[in-house]
Design a protein that fits this description.
With about 325 residues, the chain is an alpha+beta fold. The chain is about 35% helix and about 30% strand.
C-alpha cells in the first residue's frame, strides 16, 4: 500500500456569504500531492492548478494567503480533468494523508458539485498527520499549524507555505518522522459519506478505545431512540453493560455521555456524538473506552451537577 499525502488550496465567494453557492462554499483551485511507499519512501509528486468556474474572482484573503493571481488560475485545468488525473495517479492501493480534516471534506464536496462522487466512495480511512504529530510529539489533543511542526522537527524549509505543492511536501516530511506503530494504530475515518444502512455501519478498534459509526436517521430523536446505536458495550467482550450513568448532554446537545460496568472488565465510558450529514440527516459516532472508578465517579458528579443546573433553570 502507498501513502498519498495531498494538500488543497481553495477559493470562496469574493462577494460575501449572501452570494455563496451552498453546494460548493469552497472551490478547489490547486491540488498538490506526494506519493510514498509503505516504508514512507518518496515515489512521485502530482500538481495541478485548477481554473475556477464558480467563483472566478479570488477572495482577497485567498489571494493574500496563497500568493496566486487570477491570471495564474485562468491557465489552469478544469476540475473534472484535473481530479480524474489525480485519482488515477493515486493508483489502486493507497491511503490518503492530510494535515487536518478539511481537505478530504472539500475534495468530496467539489466532487459532489460536479456529480463525480462515485470516483471516491466513502467513508474513507486516512491518516491525519496533524493528529499523528500531536500523538507522537505532544499531548495528543493540541492541533498545531504545519509550519509549527516543520520548525519543531527542524525539517528543511525550502518552499513557501500555503501552496498546495509545497504544503504536501512539508506534510510528507512530517509524516515520514512518525513512528510506524503510531500510524498503524491511530488512523482516522472521514464520514462525509457516512453509512446509509445498518450493514454499512463501521466498527474500528484502537489500542485504548472502540469507535462506531452509525447509519443515518431522519431526525435526532429517531437516532437517540435506536437501542443498537445508543448501547453501552464493553470494549473487550462486546457485551451490553449495565448503565451506572444514563446518557446526559455534554456539549450543546451534540455530545452525550454514559457510563456502564462490565462485571468482567470494569467501567466503560461511552461518548455519543450526533452529527448532521450534508443532506440534513443524522448519524452518530460512538466511542467507548475503559475508565477507572475515579473517572466514573467524576462523570457521575458532573451529570448530577448539570441535572441540578437544568432543574434550577426550569424553576426560574
Amino acid at each position: 500500500m502507498n501513502y498519498v499525502v495531498f494538500d488543497l488550496e481553495w477559493n470562496q465567494c469574493p462577494y460575501g456569504k449572501d452570494f455563496e453557492n451552498p453546494r460548493i462554499p469552497f472551490e478547489v483551485i490547486e491540488i498538490g500531492a506526494v506519493k510514498l511507499n509503505e516504508k514512507k519512501e518518496y515515489l512521485d509528486t502530482f500538481h495541478a492548478l485548477i481554473r475556477p468556474t464558480v467563483y472566478r474572482r479570488l477572495h482577497f484573503q485567498t489571494s493574500r494567503v496563497i500568493g496566486l493571481k487570477e491570471a495564474d488560475l485562468r491557465k489552469g485545468r478544469f476540475f473534472r480533468d484535473a481530479v480524474r488525473d489525480f485519482l488515477a495517479w493515486c493508483g489502486e492501493d493507497f491511503r490518503f494523508c492530510t494535515w487536518g480534516t478539511l481537505d478530504l471534506k472539500e475534495l468530496q464536496r467539489n466532487l459532489d458539485y460536479y456529480h463525480m462522487e462515485k470516483l471516491l466512495p466513502g467513508p474513507i480511512l486516512y491518516e491525519d498527520v496533524q493528529k499523528l504529530f500531536a500523538i507522537a510529539y505532544e499531548n495528543r489533543k493540541d492541533r498545531r499549524a504545519l509550519n509549527y511542526a516543520v520548525e519543531y522537527l527542524h525539517l528543511p524549509e525550502d518552499g513557501e507555505f500555503h501552496l498546495a505543492r509545497e504544503d504536501a511536501v512539508y506534510t510528507a516530511r512530517v509524516f515520514q518522522t512518525i513512528p510506524d506503530d503510531i500510524i498503524k494504530t491511530n488512523y482516522s475515518i472521514d464520514c462525509y459519506r457516512n453509512p446509509k444502512t445498518r450493514e454499512e455501519e463501521i466498527i474500528l478498534r484502537y489500542p485504548d478505545y472502540v469507535k462506531f459509526v452509525s447509519r443515518e436517521f431522519d431526525t435526532k430523536e429517531q437516532l437517540l431512540q435506536a437501542g443498537d446505536v445508543t448501547a453501552v458495550r464493553c470494549t473487550e467482550c462486546g457485551k451490553d453493560v449495565r448503565r451506572l450513568v444514563r446518557y446526559f448532554s455534554d456539549g450543546g446537545g451534540k455530545n452525550h455521555i454514559a457510563v456502564g460496568k462490565c462485571e468482567e472488565h470494569g467501567f466503560i465510558k461511552c461518548k455519543l456524538r450526533v452529527r448532521e450529514s450534508e443532506d440534513g440527516r443524522y448519524y452518530a459516532i460512538r466511542t467507548t473506552k475503559r475508565i477507572s472508578e475515579e473517572d466514573m465517579l467524576a462523570i457521575r458528579k458532573k451529570e448530577a451537577f448539570l441535572r441540578l443546573k437544568r432543574q434550577n433553570r426550569r424553576r426560574k
